[in-house]
């Protein structure tokens, strides 16, 4: 690769006096570099690959794993208390006392902790589902952006063929004295312009490919399958869209976490029972043993009560956020639906009528001009009209794809 870049720079300076030739050369070399190691895949395969490679999704998997591991922390006894005492606490003799004590939680605190961890693990899964949704949307947009670049390239090639034929006719008419040199000059200028645009389009396609590769997060030069239809296939959602289900699941799971959190704080207000053992000497003679039992009573449990109330407030906030974002999502879908219908009608016109008119105009104009039945300026005017129709169709299809994908994957608010 370094050698290729070096040669590229060297040839660029060598051809500095020929900018058009240099531009074509650079574009050709870049395109050749990509083509040599391109992997063509379907949209479904691209999405699958992106989801398996995406770093954010891998981080989400680790979060799920972490929360699952933390289920083992549900049982939380206090640290074992070990104590030694030595001195004259029974007589003038130096005696020894050794004791251990362990407190255990009572009530349903262990159950509450376990349930909270289970809900946290589920919440991590919901977050991953949202991230996966965003990855799928990004890959789909990038995939069809590349296809749009390919369609523009094909149109450029078609225009090059049309104007090359026009140039030949203009040169023939000039030789026979039927027209002036202005037609030949104009045709050559247009052919050079199209060739320059071709080189620029090569750069655009490289950029689109890198965007797709970025979202798939791979070192391979991934490109869309050439058999993929240029027009995105929109799948009509049912009564409740996939986006709304994901968003609702996330917020409802968040509410479940806060509910279990409140239950955990309430359970912390229950006493703990302690069991102990001691052994000591009296007058330095023998060991005298015994057992202890006790309770830890949270007389000042206001802190946990307050935390439980705060968790209840969090529940209300999450419910309000869900209601607000549902409203935003529905309004967004209405706007996207209107734009989609507009773009759909626009594409339908070009597919059913516009392209046919363009092809008829080109065929008729070329024949008339070649037979001498049409003036140069009329020919150029009709040709530009047909070309504009074809360009507008490519733009219309691109706009349709973007609107369809946005409607298929509306933006989800989760904050």
Automatic annotation (TrEMBL):
InterPro entries: TolC-like. Its main location: membrane. Keywords: Cell outer membrane, Coiled coil, Membrane, Transmembrane, Transmembrane beta strand. It is found in: Cell outer membrane. Residues 106-136, 184-211, 324-353 form a coiled coil. GO terms for molecular function: efflux transmembrane transporter activity; porin activity. One of its GO terms (cellular component) is efflux pump complex. It comes from the Bacteria. SUPFAM superfamilies: Outer membrane efflux proteins (OEP). This is TolC family protein.
